[in-house]
TrEMBL record:
SUPFAM superfamilies: S-adenosyl-L-methionine-dependent methyltransferases. This is Macrocin-O-methyltransferase TylF. Keywords: Methyltransferase, Transferase. Pfam families: TylF. One of its GO terms (biological process) is methylation. It comes from Jezberella montanilacus. InterPro entries: SAM-dependent_MTases_sf, TylF_MeTrfase. One of its GO terms (molecular function) is methyltransferase activity.
Length: 222
């Protein structure tokens, strides 16, 4: 029966692609290709080092799936805990209030990610048991509870959570490990990430490194 249905399926796909405008390739990620490449390159650089991978601000999990797929394909899942940390309820009120009251941002421009759901998110990763979702405010989470971190991806957009989280992540980062920060681009809706990143680099006497248009990078000296 499957062999009989295949010509029908192919005919339907042909109609959909040629005449209905369906099937056009799309780019499904909210971060740039060079950011995805940086995440892979940084992981490969420390893949043999003991430590976990931490992603903070996971949205619906596109980047999580991308990295988890790579880790699984490289047969490193058993030795690479992957922690996905998010409120799973959008930004906190305190962080939004700060953007509006202290940074002059428009609340309507900032609101987002309210669609997310902790239980649904976890179900989407049942085939990746090494990925553990943690429901928490990244600004108050105890990162020492995760053990050493060898790679972190910080994608929480706003000033306060990045200002508070970057130092805590850096303190648990292994020598040679790195933190990748999204939205490090000035004069944009989410330029709180840029401000917090630049302040962190100045405070720690670290030379800022921006890859592509908005990918901040911090590497701990080996």
């Amino acid at each position: 029966m499957p062999s009989l249905l295949k010509p029908v399926k192919e005919a339907l796909k042909s109609i959909a692609f040629k005449h209905l405008g369906l099937g056009a390739p799309v780019y499904p990620y909210c971060i740039e290709p060079i950011q995805l490449a940086t995440l892979i390159n940084e992981f490969e650089r420390v893949k043999d080092v003991e430590g976990c991978v931490v992603e903070i601000g996971v949205a619906r999990g596109m980047t999580s799936r991308f990295l988890a797929e790579h880790i699984k394909n490289q047969k490193l899942a058993d030795e690479t805990p992957y922690y996905a940390i998010d409120t799973f309820e959008s930004f906190t009120k305190a962080d939004l209030d700060y953007e509006v009251q202290s940074r002059g941002k428009n609340l309507l421009d900032l609101r987002g990610f309210e669609y997310n759901d902790f239980e649904v998110w976890k179900k989407h990763f049942v085939n990746f048991p090494f990925v553990r979702a943690i429901k928490s405010d990244c600004s108050t989470f105890d990162y020492t509870s995760l053990g050493p971190v060898k790679l972190a991806f910080l994608d929480v957009d706003l000033y306060l959570p990045i200002k508070k989280t970057l130092p805590m992540l850096y303190d648990v980062l292994v020598a040679g490990g790195s933190i990748v920060i999204d939205d490090v681009l000035n004069n944009t809706t989410y330029d709180g990430a840029y401000q917090a990143y630049m302040e962190f680099c100045e405070e720690r006497n670290i030379k800022p490194t921006v890859i592509g248009n908005r990918c901040g990078l911090v590497t701990k000296p080996a």
